[in-house]
Amino acid sequence: MKSLGGIKLPHYKSTATSETVEFGIPEKILIPMSQAMGAMPEPLVKKGDNVTVGQKIGSTDAFMSAPIHSPVSGEVTDIVDYINPNGVRAKAVVIKPDGLQTKADGITPPEISDKQSFIYAVRESGLTGLGGAAFPTHVKLSFDELKTPIDTLIINGAECEPYITADNRCFLEDATDITDGILLCQKYLGIPHCKICIEDNKPEAIALMKKKTENINAIEVVTLPSKYPQGAEKVIIYHSTGRVVMEGELPSNAGVMVLNVSTVAFIANYAKTGMPLTTKRITIDGSAVKQNRGNYNVFIGTPISDILKFAGAEAAKKILYGGPMMGTALFSPDQPILKSTNAILAFDEEEQQIGIEPSNCIRCGSCTRACPLNLMPMRFETAYKTEDTEALKKLRLPLCMSCGCCSYVCPANRPLVETNLLAKELLRK
């Protein structure tokens, strides 16, 4: 099977052997209502209310949404206006923890007996894709088996971005939850086959999952080359099954469903405990981190400033949610840990490309060869500058996943991925 494009990146996986440690309770929790694709939840609490661990504090009746729960017990000190790093405005609940961690009433394992109750339980857990996409998981599970029958569940454990090792630690520390979560999905969604996909730079995870599944015929462990962006949905589907998700289609049209490994592990844990999504395993790393780099279980809503202080990285020049290729740069350390956060990376100034001006495109074709979907970023740039929307459509711009491969390999240092994002906005308008 011919491999799609992509690039080889330095791994920088120095925290791969760092066991997950509890981060602790911060002095303040800030929980935005905008933490997933779809309709934004409304706060269910007000200033002065007392809340408990696992209590629902944000919700909406819209199907394309996920409720939000308190990770701590304490007092709601304010409801504030908040701006996400992507510019979305939302309300946010501010909580002062009391340190007691009193659990909310009714935190018990959900009653699951069929597909409908399984999907309902996943929605009530507040689960969104833990690989970073923040798509409400229950929506993905609600496929119509008559219109788009799914025969293969793909567990995405590629974790192809440099530095990040949170999913690797999930494999090594939560292997039983992973297999239990897979079996729950197969049982209640009627999916007969499962492929656990792991890049070959995680040999311990591969060996452990093969051992855990050796007597389960319905689950196969697939070793993939460590090549970025191996974890992209269309890429991992093609490299593990040979199937192509066509433009404008969903993975279900190709008979597959993709879930992140941490997502499926959480499903099993929720089914056993009834505790909704209130914490995230994240990697703390980067050149500005002077101490305590590693993997931590952090309360959702913990201010990034607390993370930076803990890491000795207050002087960092660049802070990212996620990896250096597709992560989001933070405009303020007051931003909190979100459901979608899998890493906080802090970098020194010398790692940024400062003072390197773009030069003219030399038509070398490096960007096209690197593109995992065989697109032509240099032609996107030309069409964008002339506002030629028809050309952008013909060049299949909407397929671009903004992975950054084109910018990474460009010898002229042209801002190709940034231009692609602007071109997409032009098409939307």
How is the topology of this model organized?
Elements: E1 21-22, E2 29-32, E3 42-43, E4 50-51, E5 56-59, E6 68-69, E7 74-83, E8 89-97, H1 115-124, H2 137-141, E9 152-157, H3 166-173, H4 175-189, E10 193-199, H5 203-212, E11 219-224, H6 233-241, E12 256-260, H7 261-273, E13 279-285, E14 294-299, H8 304-311, E15 318-321, E16 328-329, E17 343-347, H9 366-370, H10 377-385, H11 389-394, H12 405-409, H13 416-428
Helix pairs in contact: 3-5, 4-7, 10-13
Offer a few descriptive terms.
429 residues; 13 helices; 17 strands; 27% helix; alpha/beta; globular; 19% strand; six-stranded mixed beta sheet; Rossmann fold; four-stranded antiparallel beta sheet; single chain
Overview of the molecule:
The protein is an alpha/beta fold. Among the domains are: 115-273, Rossmann fold; 366-428, no CATH class. Helix content is 27%, strand content 19%. The chain contains 13 helices and 17 strands. The strands form four sheets. Strands 1-14-13-17-15-16 form a six-stranded mixed sheet, sandwiched between helices. Helix 3 (166-173) runs parallel beside helix 5 and helix 10 crosses helix 13 (416-428). The longest helix has 15 residues, at 175-189. It is globular. The model has no long low-confidence stretch (mean pLDDT 94).
